[in-house]
Design brief:
β6, α5 and β7 form a beta-alpha-beta unit. 50% of the residues are buried. The protein has 13 helices and 10 strands. By secondary structure, the protein is of the alpha/beta class. The protein has 2 domains: 259 residues, Periplasmic binding protein-like II (D-Maltodextrin-Binding Protein, domain 2), CATH 3.40.190.10; 102 residues, Periplasmic binding protein-like II (D-Maltodextrin-Binding Protein, domain 2), CATH 3.40.190.10. The strands form 3 sheets. The chain has a 5-stranded mixed sheet. A 3-stranded antiparallel sheet has the order 8-5-9.
């Protein structure tokens, strides 16, 4: 029996932000101004953010900042949040000047930086932990990375496969023995046994498979039906969702550097709200996704699961968005060691010192603290009972 997880496009309207001028930001560099740059300049009031996928709770903090007016509070009249269904590479859009900031995984950007010679800077590390899993049936004989050799390993491609190869390299395994099978953005490849182990995110595809009815029992599949490898528990774990800025613009354009700090303040407030109000944040994203021009029509329960799991990756006890040197070094080491099934490296040299900076997020957090915004605290996970199709 072939299984199917329904996916499709939902028709909807464009997400927009109402304009609101803030007098305090009329002349950045004045005593009343906010931001990360000094001197006289005209502050940016319109900016754009490129996401790396379609609207979902993975990006809740940005949508919450938009819906709750946090961008407006930081002097922005309009923030255009641009989704991608795989047709836009976030770092490429940023390099091309099509957007001002972008969300992208660190290893993917490191590969772009080396291949193209461009300069981008990770100005906030939103996800502090890897959320990638490799999921196999219990009878597959795959319960550890050491079992990958000679197997059909599923991946979406687009750079998502590098954790697989970093983990294999750390164990001295032969990556050229692996047959990488390109998955679609469902778990059908595993359900239909077209792969031996499928890639999944804790906050998305893992829930998808647990939202499917097992035809043998008439009940939903459970975690007991599968072996799950978490890359966070391996040496292949890499930093994922980060906020990237144009390195040269940060250095040369004080208005852009100022906008980066104000943007991060609003984003931090958005993620704080999502942490403390996961149900409402999930509802906000569900409504946006339901009305977006292009989005997978997952149900409200699935979005709540996603919000719960995403919060676990963000709120780990570390300061929000601050890049941990050890985690960065581990990601770089994994990227240097990783060799794919064709014997190709992700990167061959360490990235430049400008590839990340805590200057802007630390300034944003300091200003929020001065304004009485409590940026401390951890996330207390909620219980989410999955339902068929996440409805």
């Amino acid at each position: 029996m072939r299984h199917s997880i329904r996916r499709g496009l939902a028709l909807a309207s464009t997400v927009a932000v109402a304009a609101l001028a803030l007098a305090a930001c009329s002349a950045s560099g004045s005593p009343d101004s906010t931001g990360g740059a000094e001197g006289d300049f005209e502050p940016l009031t319109d900016i754009s953010l490129q996401l790396q996928w379609l609207p979902q709770a993975q990006f809740a903090g940005y949508y919450v900042a938009q819906e709750k007016g946090y961008f407006e509070e930081e002097g922005f009249d309009n923030v255009d949040i641009v989704p991608s269904g795989g047709d836009i590479v976030p770092q490429d859009a940023l390099v091309a000047g099509d957007v001002d900031f972008a969300v992208a995984w660190v290893p993917k950007v490191l590969g772009t930086l080396e291949a193209s010679g461009v300069e981008l800077t990770d100005i906030a590390q939103v996800f502090q932990k890897s959320g990638t899993l490799q999921v196999a049936w219990k009878d597959s004989g795959i319960s550890d990375v050491a079992d990958f050799e000679g197997k059909r390993i599923g991946s979406w491609g687009f750079g998502n496969e590098w954790e697989i190869f970093a983990a294999m390299a750390a164990e001295g395994l032969d990556s050229t023995s692996v047959s990488i099978t390109t998955q679609d953005f469902s778990m059908n490849a595993l359900l239909d046994r077209d792969v031996d182990a499928a890639q999944a995110m804790t906050y998305n595809e893992w829930a998808q498979i647990l939202e499917v009815v097992n035809p043998e029992t008439g009940e939903l599949y459970t975690s007991e039906d599968f072996d799950v490898i978490s890359y966070e528990d391996t040496e292949g774990a890499m930093l994922q969702d980060a906020l990237w800025a144009d390195t040269q613009r940060l250095a040369d354009d004080p208005a852009y550097a100022d906008a980066a700090v104000r943007f991060l303040k609003a984003v931090t407030k958005g993620w704080l709200f999502a942490r403390d109000n996961p149900e409402e944040a999930a509802e906000i994203v569900y409504d946006i996704a339901s009305n977006a021009e292009a989005a997978f029509p997952v149900g409200p329960v699935h979005q709540l699961w996603q919000m719960n799991e995403v919060n676990k990756l963000i709120w780990t006890g570390a300061d929000f968005g601050v890049i941990d040197q050890a985690a960065w070094d581990k990601t770089v080491e994994g990227a240097l060691a990783a060799v794919n099934q064709d014997g190709l490296n992700l990167i061959t040299a360490e990235p430049s010192d400008t590839a990340f900076s805590n200057e802007y997020i630390e300034k944003a957090l300091a200003e929020l603290a001065d304004e009485g915004v409590d940026v401390s605290g951890e996330y207390t996970p909620i219980e989410v009972a999955l339902t068929e199709g996440g409805q």
